[in-house]
Amino acid sequence: MKAFPKSFLWGGAIAANQVEGAYLEGGKGLSTSDVQPKGVFGDVVERVAGDSALKDVAIDFYHRYPEDIALFTEMGFSCLRVSIAWTRIFPNGDEATPNEAGLAYYDKLFDELAKYGITPLVTLSHYEMPWGLVKQYGGWGSRQTIGFFERYARTVFSRYKAKVKLWLTFNEINMSLHAPMTGVGLPENSSKEAVYQAIHHQLVASALAVKACHEIIPDGKIGNMLLGGLMYPLTCKPEDVLEALQENRSWQLFGDVQCRGAYPGYMLRYFRDNGIRIEITAADREALASTVDFISFSYYMTGCVTTDKALNQQARGNILSMVQNPHLASSEWGWQIDPVGLRTLLNMLWDRWQKPLFIVENGLGAKDKVEADGSINDDYRIAYLNNHLVQVREAIDDGVEVMGYTSWGPIDLVSASKAEISKRYGFIYVDRDDNGNGTLARSRKKSFYWYRDVIASNGTIL
Ligand code: BGP
C-alpha cells in the first residue's frame, strides 16, 4: 500500500470506566457507569464501597498506566485516546471546587505520554457522568447540568492546556437517543420529548465546551464523537432508500448541529410531526453557533433497513437493531463486518461536513485462546484491522482528510455493553476473566507485532 500522510496519527483508544478501576480511589465519586455493573446499557444498581464487580478493578490502568504506556510506545503509538472520569474531578458533579487528587492523577498520565512523545486525544465524557447529578438533578434532563459540565470542561482545559491539544466532547453522543441512562442520565422509559430535551442540553453543553476550548487553548482543536452507524437500504425500492436516508439522519443529526450550529429542517419536521416541543432559548441558539474543528467517530459494522417488516431478520450492535446484510459475515457477537463501508462512510461524512475526520474506534471483539507456550495467534483480529485500514487509505486517496486512527481497546478492557473482559479487542492480552480472576499480567499477542510493523512502515505493509 502507499504510505499514509506523514502527519497521520496512529494509536489506540480506551475509556476511563473500562480500564482504570480504582473506582473510589483518590476522592473519586460514583459515576453512572459504577452503578451499572452489568454494562453501561444495563440496569442501575445502587453500589456500596467494596463491591467487587469486574469493573471496579477493570484492568487496573489507574495504577499500571506506566507499564501500559511503555507497551504502547513499543508498538510505536503517536496518539492515545483516553477519557477523563468527570467524577475524579468533580465527585458529585456540583462542587464549587475540583478535587485536586483527581487533577493530579491525569497530570501524571499526560506527563507519562509526553515522555514518549505520544499525543493525547482526550474525551471529556465517555459513557458516564456523576451519579450525584443524576440523583439530585435528573442528569441531562436538567438545564443546570449544562453549567456543571461547562465548569468541569473549563477546569480541565485550564489545568491541561499545555499538555493536551486534542479534545472530544461526548463519546458517541448519538447513543443518548437509544440508551438514555448511559447518554443523558434519564430512565430508559423516558418520553421522546424528555430525551430530546436532555439531548438538546447536551448539545448546548458540547458547544459551550468548544467555545471554552477555543478561548483557553487557542492552539488546540476540539471535535465531536459519533457512532458511525452507516445503514444501507436492503433493496433498491425507493421506500427502502428513503428509510435508509432517515435512519442515517437519526445519527447525522448530532453532527449537523455540532458542525453547522443549528437544527436541520428534517429534525424540526420530526419534532412537529411527533408533537415534540423542545425548549430552545435565544442563548442556546447563540451557544450552538460554536462548531467543532473536526469530526471523530467509531466504526465497527454496518446494517440494512427496509420498510418490509417481514424481512426483519435482526442483526444487532450494542443496542441498535438492524436487518442482516446477506453479503457480510459477522463477528462472534453478530456485528456485521464491512471494511468497504468504512471508505463509504469516510467519503459520506467528508462530503457532508467538509471537516477533518478522525477514526477514534474500530476493532474486533473476539475470544482469544492462550496457547500452552503463552502465545496468542489472533490472525482474525489482524485480518479485520488490516482490511479496514486498507479502506482508510483508499478514502485518503479519494481526497478525504483523515487525521488519524486509534483502534478500540489496544489493551484488553471491560466491554461497555456486557461488562465482560472475554470480549477482547487488544493487541495486549490481560490475564483476567469475567469473574475477576487472574493476575492482571500483560502479554503481547501476534497482532501486537503486526500493528507495530504497520505503524513503523506508516501503513505500507498493509
Ligand atoms: C463503543 C464504545 C466503547 C466500546 C465499543 C465496543 O460503542 O464507545 O466504549 O466499548 O463500543 O463495544 P463493546 O465494549 O460493547 O464490545
List the helices and strands and how they pair.
Blueprint: E1 9-13, H1 16-19, H2 54-57, H3 61-75, E2 79-83, H4 86-89, H5 100-115, E3 119-125, H6 131-137, H7 144-160, E4 166-170, H8 180-184, H9 192-216, E5 221-227, E6 231-233, H10 238-260, H11 265-273, H12 282-288, E7 294-298, E8 303-305, E9 314-316, E10 321-323, H13 339-353, E11 357-361, H14 379-397, E12 402-408, E13 428-430, E14 442-444, H15 446-456
Helix pairs in contact: 3-5, 7-9, 9-12, 13-14
Q: Explain this structure to me?
A:
The N and C termini lie close together (6 Å). By secondary structure, the chain is of the alpha/beta class. Strands 1-2-3-4-5-7-11-12 form an 8-stranded parallel beta barrel, surrounded by 5 helices. The chain is globular, with a radius of gyration of 21 Å. It has 15 helices and 14 strands. Helix 14 (379-397) links the parallel strand 11 and strand 12 (402-408). Belongs to the glycosyl hydrolase 1 family.
Biggest beta-sheet profile: 8 strands, parallel, barrel
Oligomeric form: single chain
The helix-and-strand class reads: alpha/beta
The share of residues in helices is: 25-40%
- Output the radius of gyration: 21 Å
Calculate the mean pLDDT score and round it: 95
CATH architecture group name = Alpha-Beta Barrel
Keywords: Glycosidase, Hydrolase
Family: Belongs to the glycosyl hydrolase 1 family.
Active site: 361
Protein name: 6-phospho-beta-glucosidase
